[in-house]
Amino acid sequence: MQQRGTPFSHEVIGARQGFDEYVLENREANPNIHNGQLVVDINRSGMFRPTEFSSFLEIDRKYHSLKERLPADEPDHDVIEQQLIADSILSLELQGVNVPYDEYMLATAGFIPEKVPGKEIDLLLTTLDNRFGLFGLRYDEEGVKKYHEEHLLTDPAKIKEAFKLAMPLARTALRPHSRLITPHIDIKPVNLPKVFWSGYIFSDNYGNMQVTANINPSRRYTRARILQWCLHEGEHYDHFDERAESVASRRMSPAANLTGMASPETVQLEGGAGPSEDKLPDLAQSEEERNNFELERTSAKTFTAVIHNATIDINSGVPEKQVIKEAQDLLLREEPERIRTIILQSRDLPEARAVIPTYQFSYELMAPLFKVSDPEKRKQGLDEFHKRALTIPQMRQLVAAAQS
Length: 404
What we know:
mainly alpha; 3-stranded mixed β-sheet; two-stranded antiparallel ribbon; 15 helices
């Protein structure tokens, strides 16, 4: 594969991929490292030789050198600078250095998270209760149990089939603002009982993309939840394709086309995907199905808001048992152990500390762009958002320009 961009961008990519490989190779001996990819979530930058590291000290020295030598005229200078800072802070955390939470979030994800106001949580819960009321139920333990008896998919084979049917439908729903460079996504179902993620997108160095979907019944899937998940991942897919095209045409630096697990890149990645889930009710074929899809969307928003606040609380010294209980009391549709795992990881695992609060922030940041009434302005804004790497201030400017 032809390498494009400047030698410095190639050096950045090699360092980030080398950091990632070192983390994966040494995760069993390091309690601060989660059993998964920490640094690079997806690679659409082409084939480059990863830098070989034998210690975190070598990694830290390399990143210090890169920051010192970052050329002023390097394409996407500000984004690459953010990546280097984020990775450096993550390296410290993986070595057991406890960076204060606000400082860690600002250096990695690029913002200091604020709690969702209690009134907004109460409104979400009231709306959720009203949604359950359309099915003759209440949002309580009994009502949730009856709803699940009617709608929950528990057979892994049926869950797998639902994913296969949902992805084409989701991609059709994304067409109004998507160029859909690649018309198909391969879905690989896996059963991961101890993993709380629904799944992720993977890309090899040749650009072959695949969605890995966790079909374990503990995820409490319904048809609507699967459709919602596919809307989210489908948006990511188009986002990466457009950025890859920008790299190929040299409009963007290859070094800015890597998505870090703890980086401002994640804000842009999730900012494009989160609001797309709001299209879920539009996919309904009947009034009853629409009510069901509205319920699922409200449930997802409630989940994200509650977990966002719990992440801030547990990183601010609120007692663990209190934080977990309060979240479990509000999120009746989720398995208690899943909620507990997410909250503890948001405190104990460096990459989770940065990623989890990003969802709420990203949605609030980008949702106004999806709601712009002029379809041409909306499409133009989303095209600009997808095809190049942006800083958070640039994302805000893009939204404001589309709204004006």
